[in-house]
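Field log, afternoon session.

UNIT: design team B
ACTIVITY: writing a sequence onto a fixed backbone
BACKBONE:
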């Protein structure tokens, strides 16, 4: 059941808070045939298991990628699907499995596979799974933009945001999925569209019609949260519209 939020809920959940500066660090991990060095920070002070990273390409990386670019187009397409580790963009997100959240990690991995046709526009791209720091982790695209829970993401009027959320939620419903963790920080405003993230908690429906029946209620709930969020930002003097 959805719980409605107010200013107190927003502060407790980390929505709309000013973040403390996060320390930048360099990490190393193996993704299939490639050992990757990347530098970045936690996504925010709440999600300690999510890192936003920029890949540090070695000389070997540059040579391999240059050779792959010289391949004929059919061979290049085959290599990209077979060796995704060599086609990662400069900016990525590493999302580590939280302790005790095995089922949620499995759900998110399965959901990305089910929503493969939405990757890269409605949801992030999932490049694959790795082992990092003693746990499983996903390598995802960094979609950029701003989450709706932050002042920088609260730039739209309600009648501007509503159709964007409707479009994103309907895209999920077409594939029989509805998001069951309807927090504003799971929806990012990216180049005038909404990108949905965090699929640890979803509902998979027997049909797209069943999923579409829930979409108006989910949309109404999110718009109520956004309305409350705008009011809290105004009270705090943080509204940047």
């Amino acid at each position: 059941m959805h719980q409605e939020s107010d200013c107190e809920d927003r502060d407790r959940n980390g929505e709309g808070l000013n973040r403390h500066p996060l320390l930048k660090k360099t990490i190393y991990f193996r993704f299939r045939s490639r050992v990757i060095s990347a530098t970045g920070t936690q996504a925010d002070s709440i999600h300690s298991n999510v890192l936003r990273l920029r890949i540090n390409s070695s000389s070997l990386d540059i040579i391999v990628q240059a050779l792959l670019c010289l391949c004929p187009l059919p061979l290049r397409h085959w290599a990209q699907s077979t060796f995704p580790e060599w086609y990662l963009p400069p900016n990525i997100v590493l999302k580590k499995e939280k302790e005790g959240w095995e089922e949620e990690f499995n759900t998110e991995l399965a959901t990305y596979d089910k929503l493969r046709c939405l990757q890269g526009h409605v949801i992030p791209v999932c490049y694959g799974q790795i082992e990092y720091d003693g746990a499983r982790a996903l390598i995802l695209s960094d979609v950029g933009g701003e989450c709706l829970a932050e002042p920088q993401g609260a730039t739209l009027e309600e009648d501007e945001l509503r159709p964007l959320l409707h479009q994103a939620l309907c895209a999920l419903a077409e594939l029989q999925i509805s998001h069951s963790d309807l927090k504003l920080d799971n929806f990012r405003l990216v180049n005038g569209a909404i990108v949905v993230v965090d699929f640890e908690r979803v509902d998979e429906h027997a049909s797209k019609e069943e999923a579409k029946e829930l979409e108006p209620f989910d949309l109404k709930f999110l718009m109520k949260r956004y309305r409350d969020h705008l009011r809290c930002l105004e009270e705090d003097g943080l509204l940047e519209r």
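LOG NOTE: Confidence is low (pLDDT under 50) at residues 8-19.
NEXT ACTIVITY: expression trials, pending approval
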